[in-house]
Sequence to fold (194 residues):
Amino acid sequence: LQELMEHVFCEWPRTLASLQDLKESEVQPERLGQLTTFAQMIAGYRAGLEETREAKLKAEAKEQSACLVAKQKSRAFQELSAQAKQLKEERDSCKKQMEIAQKGQQEAEEFFETFKQQTKLALINYSDMQYREATVKVDLHNLQVHCREKDITIADLRGQTTALTHENQDLEEKLMKVREEMERQGSEVEQLPA
Fold:
């Protein structure tokens, strides 16, 4: 009976030789009901193990959710990087077009200045002008038409330069916004648990 009691109750005194040495108050049903049995102890361990399993499952679900969010933010960061790269390329293209337009404008202005100088020289040589009056009138008319065309070309080039300047400023503003968004999302991605 002593051995049976030791196997049923965790707190059963093992130093006693037999049950007969115990006091009657120590073996009454109320006193035995206060002692913890091995079955109760194992049930407690099982309940703790189940709580640990549930906590582990919750932690794994939370980790998967965090990984999904991190992947989405990483994907969004990559898309913003691609947009920023595209905007840089568009800005560079606009700069090149603006440089070409400015160069064309400068060439047209130089040509116009040359034309004015040639006209002055032609007027100085008046006696030769009388001799070639008919030819010069036709040439002058053609040059004036050409001059008007160049003026129109210059005006168009100036308009293109202004439009490209505005477009370049718009692209730089968009690029700045995209960079700020990338930095914000980059910092959010870095703050996510690894």
